Fold this protein.
Amino acid sequence: MSFIIRRFRPEQIRELFLVVLIFLVVVFFSIEIEGYFNARFVNRISTSVVVVAILAVGQTLVFLTRNFDLSVGSIVGFTAYFVGQQLWHHPEIPPLAAVALAIGVGMLMGAINGVLIAYGRVPSIITTIATLAIYRSFLVEYSHAVPITTNNLPDWIVNLPPLSLFFVGEVQVRVLFVIMALVVLGFQALLNYLPFGRRLYAIGSNPDAARVAGFPAQRIVFIAFLLSGGLAGLAGFIFLARFGNISVLAGIGLEFASIAAVVVGGVSNMGGSGTVYGAFLGALLIDLLENSLFRWQVISEFWRDAILGMLILLAVAIDYVVIGRLRVIWARAGLQMQAEASSEKPEGTVHVD
Amino acid sequence: MTEPILELRNISKRFDMTQALDEVSLSLYPGEIHALVGENGAGKSTLIKIATGIYRPDQGEILLDGEPVQVSNAQEAQAYGIAAIYQEPMIFPDLNVAENIFISHQDRGPIVRWGKMYNDAEAILAQLDVKLDVRMSARGLTLAAQQAVEIAKAISLNVRVLIMDEPTASLSIHEVRELFKLVHSLASQGVAVLFIGHRLEEVLAVADRVTVLRDGRWISSHPREEVTAEQVIRDMVGRDVSEFFAKETTQRGELLMSVRDLGRRGIFEGITFDVYGGEVLGFAGLIGSHRTDVGLALFGIEPADTGEIRVKGKPQRIHSPQQALKLGIAYATEDRRLLGLNMPLPIASNISLPMLTRYLSPLGLIRRRAEVSAAERFRQRLSIRAPSIMEPVERLSGGNQQKVMLSKWLNANPRILILDEPTRGIDVGAKAEVHQMISELAGQGLGVIMISSDLPEVLAMSDRVLVMREGKQMAIVERALATEERIMTAAMGHYDREKGVVQ
């Protein structure tokens, strides 16, 4: 027991719980729906989860600092449209340059959020609600309400979504999924192994202490929003590739999907705890449920959103009750270990004057 | 004499209408422990915040090794070797001990090497003779342990000036001694320590030099051996005041509550005592003795799971604060800021909050006038100093906040009042006032349970003292027999089960 407590944090147990839950969902629908679980289904999920999962990674960075980024839906819409339009008029743009353009535009928008929040001290919920509306209006103004369609785009981007790197049996390992996997792994490593990552946790864990701790807390919050914007730009590019048809409504609601994913994934809305893996698992669980409920005739489509809403409430309840309990157990065990350690001290060090 | 490491010269700082600091100067020499004392509002905190770069002075300069420097944020202060430890340790609860120690480091390479970090953290803690698991999450640490982590952090940053802002406010006597050992060993390594404290005897025990501030002005600086406690108090308040008010003898009234063998699994056990009207029962013990948990159990916040509580002879299971209030039990928490008061709300709203149903009109709306008049009564009765009872509590001094909290619970007309650290963090004058108030309340027939880490306070105020150690009741000492030594022996000694006492 004490080994478990020393090596693991309560949050990791929660992630294990999510994996089990995803497994149970698959088992449940396999029983309910004939021919549910097959390679085609895996391929579909692995494509549809990508956009929200990448947004959830950015949202996690921001959440860890006890902030929100509600503007990501509009950033996705704008970058998807902007990059699509550039490719329409300049089809010679190489693929990597198109990706870089998307990320760059997203970072620019994220930087605006970051400056206002980190240096202007405007609460993130206010800032990003405002920029959510502003970036969307940009898109409307910029596009003159002319949609982009698949016909306008170069072939390489239209053919990107089904493009696979390799196969495992009939399961395709698609390029977009690999990009997402690299983002998840890369950012998890960043959280674990870069001082920047650890300080994100520190800031959300105790903002007052972060202010006096002697590391550049403002800059770190700024970078979190910058990265969230950049990842939203990347997601915008993938959104463009997946759907091809981009109107002024593109990406609406993705900010809530990404927040749902991180909350279900156990990233605390009070900052300081959570992982990118968890956020990915949250995105996967939601996507899995959406796709499964769609095929499950028992439940009408109007109830699907309600079920997702309940899932979010359940996730938050688990956070407050289960994680709270686990933390108490952890803290008590810790105190006990501390007490044991200090009772090893020779009695002679304790004296009464 | 050697040159000072850090010199603050003629520092002035103004906030809106208040002159927080007015031409204050202070020099810190290597290896010296310099105590800074003064009542709340004297400007100590502002001075510290200027030295650590959180505020900029309006006027005056900061010299480091004789060179004028600009300290404009915590990072720069850290680069100059100036670090501060606050009353509430500034730790990150979601990070572990080692991460907390190294979180501010800029020099540990671009990648976190976990293994090396744990080893280095262990080495620093060993150097300080602190036994802590470096992998443990900081969330579970005691305040004393959190402070040890902060000191370890300062040492790891090669600190030259360490500012300690009331580090002992939440520590027990034993922990204070351990802390002072750390402070002395830091000073012997040439670190200049600026020590801010409220408990005068502690300050005088540890300091080499004592500087007093009052109302934002420098009053005096003396080498320790040239001052007496009385003189320091006189400098602080500008008049003669004794630090403690001893409880007056009161008539022991009826038996209000008797507690038998109370326990909560894994936290405390075997707590047995009686509370009579007119009496103050002190709860003494080191931090980690779980005195507060007994208070929480009696008030139903964290209910007990074994034993018996009888209120006026009737056995009761107290499982919620509402129920405790109905039984006439009120509990004023040790943490005014977090649990006790709603800081942005006015005094009146804070006082009426637990008893809000009493102020409802038949339509279920709050009758503001009744609320206000009740608050006004308490303002006079407890002499709360505030421009109006509509003043937000956050603008009051610690002592006055404490009085608002007392009013809030007295408004519930309790028979038994549990006070947890009633004078923590409040200044000398207000402390004596709170003591006098407690004494008067007992005189009116209330039974008071006073949990306190301030041993002289416990001795001055209690009719009987219940001493706890690690969740166990060690002894109940009568006032006549209660001495500091006897209580400390009980608090740290061995428990004799047969006799039920310590020897």
